[in-house]
Design goal:
By secondary structure, the protein is α/β, with parallel strands linked by helices. The protein contains 19 helices and 16 strands. A five-stranded antiparallel beta sheet has the order 2-1-5-4-3. It has a five-stranded parallel beta sheet with strand order 7-10-13-6-14. A hairpin with a 2-residue loop joins strand 3 and strand 4. Helix 7 packs parallel to helix 8 and helix 18 packs across helix 19. The protein is elongated and about 100 Å long. The protein binds adenosine-5'-triphosphate and magnesium ion. The site of magnesium ion has 4 residues, from helix 8.
Length: 455
């Protein structure tokens, strides 16, 4: 096989590329099968003919004249859209012909692709809308305790003031997120998004981009198209800054500016963008103490603390345990597809004696486990035996502190041991570990990073 034949053979094998070659007079000396198919001609009808008689507007003729390549132009032959390139062929500095190749742009396929992509995009849009909708309202906050009822009343009043910033504090698992959802849902912002940002879960160097977004090519590694920040995403609605106590100081000052001006600037952006967003922040840390320690900005604290909703720990409203238990039995029955009808008196007494360090989340987790156990033994009622709160005990305390060791260091060490022991107990199942310790998964990750525990 000669080199020429080999080339012909190769070009015939490429179904989506049309190729043609002409000599310096413009006579066709080579054409591949794909191009013949598009032209609806046979080889005989083309070879040796002037290209002007086959495709009169061919740019290959221009190339023969100018000696310069024509690259990437649109080329339509028999309703086929092609992207074509015509190159001059030189020998000893003299033009001896031109070689052209075109790639199909099958417009119909492209249209189908675009339609598929659009319907996929719409699906994601509606999913995002669902995700951005807040889930709970005030009726979902169960409790008859007077303090809790007062808080619900206060929160419902604040909800109507659509621009008022709210700070929700309380121990882990007390229902801070529930309150945030309820405030959004009963405000006039409810048709707009509710966007949650977990300040503890996002690495410090990404937090700014996450909150404010960035322009195209703002930094290396960034998405080429730029990215909308959570503030813009929440426009018209509410942004819920969860675990605000974990926000690094550098971001705290930027957040303060946004709260004061209601204006954000994207990373790498030049124009400030006006946003209309209510901020609800939540924390289980003592922010006022953090202010004293210098780890939380005082001015931001006051700016956030316009309205403070401090949710009581469950051990301080134990009288709500019976209604919470019934509420969760109903809720869990439908989620777990179980048929538990209630709880025995000794079971309830046992729950009422416990101190609930993980608050209502812990109660829900304990009940979930009990429902599964009771269901496995085909029992319809929860009883004392279905609760083994010692399972939920914290790992035993370390040896006594060494002389001179600070309380803080001891607590840190204890925390690390507690994490390691629980991780071991759950075979490093992070979800279960977080549930055992009654902390958020994100808090668990943060603490694991802090103690350099590899996951
Ligand atoms: N008053 C309540 N009535 C009904 N369910 C509640 C109540 N409070 C909390 N819960 C439930 O307890 C769980 C934990 O609540 P939530 O996530 O709001 O706690 P949190 O205070 O944000 O905790 P963390 O600080 O760990 O993030 C959720 O499943 C929530 O539905
Ligand atoms: Mg929370």
């Amino acid at each position: 096989m000669s080199t020429w034949q080999m080339l012909e053979y190769l070009f015939d094998q490429i179904p989506y590329m049309a190729t043609i070659m002409v000599d310096k007079e413009g006579k066709v000396i080579f054409i591949n099968k794909t191009y013949l198919r598009i032209l609806k001609l046979s080889k005989k009808e083309v070879i040796g003919k002037h290209i002007g008689t086959i495709t009169p507007r061919s740019r290959t003729l221009v190339v023969l004249k100018t000696g310069r390549a024509e690259v990437g132009y649109n080329w339509i032959v028999n309703d086929q859209h092609l992207i074509a390139t015509s190159l001059p062929v030189y020998e000893n500095n003299e033009i001896i012909g031109s070689f052209a190749y075109s790639i199909f742009l099958n417009i119909y396929e492209a249209k189908n692709l675009v339609e598929d992509l659009l319907s996929e995009l719409n699906m994601y849009k509606s999913q995002v809308n669902c995700l951005l909708r807040s889930k709970y309202d005030f009726d979902d906050i169960i409790g008859e305790d007077q303090r809790l009822k007062d808080l619900k009343f206060l929160a419902a009043q604040i909800a109507h003031h659509k621009n008022t910033t709210v700070l929700i504090s309380g121990e882990s698992g007390t229902g801070k997120e529930l309150f945030a959802h309820a405030i959004h849902n009963s405000s006039c912002r409810s048709p707009f998004p509710f966007v949650r940002v977990n300040c503890a879960a996002i690495p410090e160097n990404l937090l700014e981009a996450e909150l404010f977004g960035y322009e195209k090519g703002a930094y290396t590694g960034a998405n080429k198209e730029g990215k909308l920040g959570k503030f813009e995403l929440a426009n018209g609605g509410t942004i819920f800054l969860d675990e605000i106590g974990e926000m690094p100081l550098s971001m705290q000052s930027k957040l303060l500016v946004v709260l004061q001006e209601q204006i954000i600037e994207r990373l790498g952006g030049v124009q400030p963008i006006k946003v209309d967003v209510r901020v609800i922040a939540a924390t289980n840390r003592e922010l006022s103490q953090m202010v004293q320690e210098g780890t939380f900005r005082e001015d931001l604290f006051y700016r956030l603390n316009v309205f403070n909703i401090n949710i009581p720990a469950l051990r301080n409203h134990k009288r709500d345990i019976p209604i919470l238990v019934n509420h969760f039995i109903d809720k869990l029955n439908s989620r777990l597809n179980t048929h538990i009808s209630g709880i025995s008196k000794d079971g309830l007494d046992y729950l009422c004696q416990y101190h609930w360090p993980g608050n209502i989340r812990e109660l829900e987790n304990v009940l979930e486990r009990a429902l599964i156990l009771a269901d496995m033994e085909k029992s319809r009622q929860l009883g004392r035996k279905h609760f083994n709160l010692s399972d939920y005990d914290r790992p035993e305390l370390l040896s006594d502190g060494k002389p001179g060791e600070s309380l803080k260091a001891m607590i840190e060490e204890y925390e690390k041991t507690a994490l390691l022991k629980t991780l071991e107990k759950t075979d490093f199942d992070k979800k279960r570990t977080a549930a055992y310790l009654n902390i958020d998964l994100s808090s668990l990750y943060r603490k694991m990073r802090k103690h350099k525990i590899l996951s």
